[in-house]
Every structure is written in C-alpha cells, then in structure tokens.
Amino acid sequence: MTYPTETLTHSDIWAATADLTTLRHKLLDLFCQLAYQEGDFVLSSGLRSSYYVNKTQVTLHPQGALAVGRLLFPLLSVDTQAVGGLTLGADPMVTAVSVVSVYENRPIPALIIRKEAKGYGTKAYIEGPILPEGAKVVVLEDVVTTGQSALKAVERLKAAGYTVNQVIALVDRQQGGAELYQSAGLKFEALFSIEEIQQRYQQIK
Questions:
Q1: CATH architecture of 11-204
Q2: Which reactions is this enzyme annotated as catalysing (predicted)?
Q3: Most exposed of 132, 182, 188, 192 (fewest Cβ within 10 Å)?
C-alpha cells in the first residue's frame, strides 16, 4: 500500500484522537497494510524467512510514529529516566516516545546507540543527553528475532554506567528473543506478536 499524500481531514487524524485500545487496532492494521510482506527474505540475523516486517514504513509514517509513541509510553516503568535503542531501527521510536512524553507532562529524553563508535569528535557510542550515573534507561526495539540487537544496546548503555532492566519491542517474531532477554534478567514485552499480525493480515488482505 502506497502512502497517500493528500491532506488529511480532522476525522482522519486517528493517531492523535483515538483512545489507546482503538489506537492499537489501527496501528496493527497499518503494520498489515504497509509493513508486512510475504516472500523469501534474509533477515539481519542471517536467518531466512518467508515473511518480512518492513517496520520503518510504520515508524516513519506520520500517524504511525505518533501511534507508536502514544502506545509505548504507558509501557515504561514509572522510574524511567530515558529511552534508547540501537540505530537505525529504534531511532524513530525513541524520538516518538520522547515527544509524546512531553505532552504527558513527564519529559523523557531519547538516546541513540551506534553500532560502532563514531570515528571523530567524542568517538561516542551513545548520542543524546548525558544522564546521571545509574540512570534507568528502557531499551526500545522495532522487531525482535533473536534479540541480539537490543541486547547490544543494553550492553552499551550499561558500559556507560546506566541501569537497564526493560526492553520493549513493537513486534516479537517469537524466535528466541524473549528467552534471551529473560536469561539476561531483563523484563520484556512486545506490542504485537507476529502471530497477531499474520492473523490480521489474512483477514484484511
């Protein structure tokens, strides 16, 4: 489905006006319409798959981004001091949650974790505000397969002196990520399971 470029009317701006239950249903439909594809794919983990979730079609969509921010924000533990994630997939997510947090009167900064330290300037792995030692950061991930990407973000944040106890994903492919996080002592939850997306995809395709 191609993104329509015409101006939206007020009634079309569901991401800003819908209650959270309706918002979740509409975001699920957006994943099915824009992000979910069936075919032959090689994933970032190196695994082959008969389907692919092109998540940036949703997280960089204007309504999708706002819906992601509104739905993930309530999942953060009350003592969260920042959200962070591994570039590139988590970048729009942490930004959306941080922006929504301002409107919720609970401003939470965003951190972006590089895959490799930049080769100039501060040569930092982590971009964003410098937080106090031990600050509690929640790691956000777009699609979890084996779980290694978010775990790398967790390790980078801990190496910087921060505390990480929670990982939140948009989609869990249910291929070992949840078990990996559990073994690492991390609380994990996902907004959608791949089964839920596939079932809805079959209903509306």
A1: 3-Layer(aba) Sandwich (3.40)
A2: orotidine 5'-phosphate + diphosphate = orotate + 5-phospho-alpha-D-ribose 1-diphosphate
A3: 132
